Fold this sequence. Notes:
This protein is an alpha/beta fold. It has helices at 40-55, 91-100, 119-132, 148-152, 178-187, 199-213, 222-225, 228-245, 257-266, 279-283, 289-292, 305-317, 332-335, 352-361, 367-381, 409-412, and strands spanning 3-12, 15-24, 27-33, 60-63, 68-71, 73-78, 103-108, 136-139, 141-142, 162-165, 192-195, 249-251, 274-278, 322-324, 398-402, 431-437, 440-444, 447-448. It folds into 2 domains: 3-69 and 392-406 and 426-448, Urease, subunit C, domain 1, CATH 2.30.40.10; 73-381, TIM Barrel (Alpha-Beta Barrel), CATH 3.20.20.140. Helices cover 34% and strands 20% of the residues. α3 (119-132) links the parallel β7 (103-108) and β8 (136-139). The model has no long low-confidence stretch (mean pLDDT 96).
Amino acid sequence: xxxxxxxxxxxxxxxxxxxxxxxxxxxxxxxxxxxxxxxxxxxxxxxxxxxxxxxxxxxxxxxxxxxxxxxxxxxxxxxxxxxxxxxxxxxxxxxxxxxxxxxxxxxxxxxxxxxxxxxxxxxxxxxxxxxxxxxxxxxxxxxxxxxxxxxxxxxxxxxxxxxxxxxxxxxxxxxxxxxxxxxxxxxxxxxxxxxxxxxxxxxxxxxxxxxxxxxxxxxxxxxxxxxxxxxxxxxxxxxxxxxxxxxxxxxxxxxxxxxxxxxxxxxxxxxxxxxxxxxxxxxxxxxxxxxxxxxxxxxxxxxxxxxxxxxxxxxxxxxxxxxxxxxxxxxxxxxxxxxxxxxxxxxxxxxxxxxxxxxxxxxxxxxxxxxxxxxxxxxxxxxxxxxxxxxxxxxxxxxxxxxxxxxxxxxxxxxxxxxxxxxxxxxxxxxxxxxxxxxxxxxxxxxxxxxxxxxxxxxxxx
Length: 462
């Protein structure tokens, strides 16, 4: 059945204007917009003619008056915990939360139990997602010191990228062999996404603060233990390798002003270098550790207000073109432990779009910026096939938001399996009303419909 979404404000490719969309199956068949060339009268006539033509076929019509129509959010970094930690999260539970927040596609990380470091294990995750995911999906292959052949065997149109833990990591995924790193940067057929924190620096800092405080390290010491120096040292190494080997490097969850400047400089030599920032580094800063404690403990650590402002500026000026979450749920009782035992990571995927829309409402960004960084930017960075834009012939991944309807319930009662949110108690300025994944309405009036029509992401790469 076709669906006509009419008379909303379409936000796409730097413009916002009154528009209507015709969805046919899983594709956007028709886009009708007002513009300097198409006035209100001509627009209304075209929509009326379309509505009349399709009404005989039983087409559904959704009146989007007062709503903004955005391309669905693409989150390039989530941890949905499956396999191995399904008490915390599953692909099913977290993809439900994702679509409730307007995220229609995700890319999941390989540090599972067991780690996803072989192509056969990777395909196992794809098979699971095909059955259970409410959002479109892709999965990174994890790099190790001894799986270069697996990396070289990647089919580049089917896998989003290779994840390299260049510094601290859990499990056996720390890549610390220099010759292996060099080979990965030289030979990977796909984008290389890196976690950059220097392990030795962190170990030394941790020993220092453990000697001083024992197990009762104050949470405000977190950005001193997982310090800016650890991030800068490791990011510099990744950038050097990428420049030397002309690699497509994507540095994840940037947390310092210094790294932003380093990326700007490296891009002069290798324009394929990119960076990603996550919403919590633009929302929180180190002054808030006494209030939030473990609820804002994540890796890399959230750092100073000056870093937060520099990250916002880099997103605004185009230095950084991808905004994501690093969604990393843990059980609340785990997070309530002392510093040395409380795990790092925040559940975020349901609220990332609302965070960005709220920052836009404060004048930090425009709504066009939000779409550029959360939809267009990831689609371009990863060369995702027919997603990330509102275009005829593209998949109908869409989110309809009400920017004037406050939402206090989603943060208080999130859909995450872990059951909590760092934004608990906060009222967002905008609400997610409807979400479509491949033309299927998975969220209606802020609630799951129970329908799903997700697909594996594919990539157009030479």
